[in-house]
Amino acid sequence: PGDGDLLALTVDDGVNSEVVRAYTQFAKDTGVRLTYFVNGVYDSWTENLEMLRPLVDSGQIQLGNHTWSHPDLTSLTKEQVSQQLTRNDEFLKKTYGIGAKPYWRPPYAKRNAAVDAVAADLGYTVPTLWSGSLSDSTLITEDYIVQMADKYFTPQAIVIGHLNHLPVTHVYPELVDTIRSRNLRTVTLNDVFLKTP
Fold first, then answer.
1. Spatial distance between the Cα atoms of 130 and 62, rounded to a whole number of angstroms
2. pLDDT for the residue 157
3. Which of 1, 14, 48, 117 is in the most buried spot, having the most CB atoms within 10 Å?
4. Cα–Cα distance between 104 and 108 in angstroms, integer?
5. Of 76, 148, 86, nearest to 110 (Cα)?
């Protein structure tokens, strides 16, 4: 995103409350700016509200819409797609007092013209994919996560990670070292693209 030295680190889902808590503490401790793509169905988003809210309010952590419960949207009716995005949107507004528009991330990166049209009608005009991945949606080793960071933490990258499994919480120093050694600046999507209204 943007010019030069910017890295957008985006982390998804929220299956594991402990991982959401650890990522949020990581942001507090290091100043790293993050975008979380939230599935509101997971308890982690209410369990960590008190810790997360100040960072959301300050803009250090941005929240995006990843649908309510992470279905493959291309397998749903238009009404079901709308419900997935709207229910999550309402959850974010009620819980965090913020809207996520225009940013949404289709689960499994699965989308088509019909899904995009429903999303756009709801104000979700920016389907947010990624250029690199920590590959940690499933349980992998800490070493592999560090290898993926080494490969994909590059200028102008949007990198996806996940708030689901504990290994990533053990390699934050290595992630920070990679960011700093490459003189990268972490940004949220709002920092460089459209601002959420």
1. 16
2. 95
3. 14
4. 12
5. 76
**CB distance 26 to 172 below 8 Å:** yes
pLDDT digits (tens, 9 = 90+) for 101-123: 999 999 999 999 999 999 999 99
- Number of Cβ within 10 Å of residue 9's Cβ equals 26
For residue 61, what are the β-bridge partners?
Answer: 34
Residues facing residue 35 across a β-bridge = 10, 62
Lookup: tokens for 14: 């929220």
C-alpha to C-alpha distance for 59 and 189, rounded to whole angstroms: 10
Q: What are the domain boundaries of the chain? A: 6-192
Specify the CATH architecture of the domain 6-192. Answer: Alpha-Beta Barrel (3.20)
- DSSP label at 47? H
- Where b means 16+ CB within 10 Å and e means fewer, 12-28 reads bbbbbbebbbbbbebbe
In 2-84, which ranges are E strands?
6-13, 34-38, 61-65
Coil/strand/helix, residue 154? coil
